[in-house]
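Subgroup meeting minutes
Present: P.N., E.W., G.H.
Scribe: E.W.

1. P.N. recapped why we're keeping a running log of single-chain structure predictions: easier to compare across weeks, and new members can see raw inputs and outputs side by side.
2. G.H. added today's entry (253 aa).
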Amino acid sequence: MLGKNLPLSYFVHDTQLCDSPFLGIPALGKTGDLHVDTIALTLVSMALILGTAAVLTPRLTAENAGGTGQSILEMFYDFMVDLTKGQMGHAYKKFLPLISAIFIFVLINNFIGVGPWKALEAFSWWPKTGHESFEIAAATTDFNVTVGLALVALISYLSSGFWAHGIKYLKHYLNPIEWLDFFVRPATLALRLMLVISADEILRGVALTLVPWFLPTGVMAFELFIGVIQAFVFALLTSIYIGLTVSHGEAHA
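Output recorded in log:
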């Protein structure tokens, strides 16, 4: 991750808890390090999403065209319907909220790291995490976040298989090759997102160092484009995986 990880001992002053072996792993304090930047920025992104929804929802109307916010929401809804329906057929309605949530969460977390934040760390008023400056980096540069999202996708498409086909879906995994799904699909989802967004963050850091004013603007615009693409790819692949499991079980929808 590009941000700072603080040891558990920074917050919990209990040497027995922080230094004792846990489940055979020496020192819970090391394995239990807190990714403070990730936690903070993930909470900020969730607050932005929920706050925007809370502001726009009361203003929605079915009687006329509505305002700009409603137009944006309708375009987003139509986009997500096209994405999910194209992969899942008539079963898309049950998974539309999940895919939409994944897309908007990944998108906002990709966007939140875009900015000249690195340059601001030189100022004395910039917040600190311990003895180091608080670093604003996309939460999706943290492998823990991308793995968590990948596990959500894994659980979703496995569950959709049982929803569509019932207990007979177990026969699908009698073939040992199919067990690769448990590793390959989540791994590719998690690694692709983390590596691409991390590369963008590093590119911006280099640009800020070499050309502090003009070049980073173009780099940040490119980052926003990549952030949209990666959110789309993550949501699309999750839709495809779910669509593959329900493609022969739409009668249960």
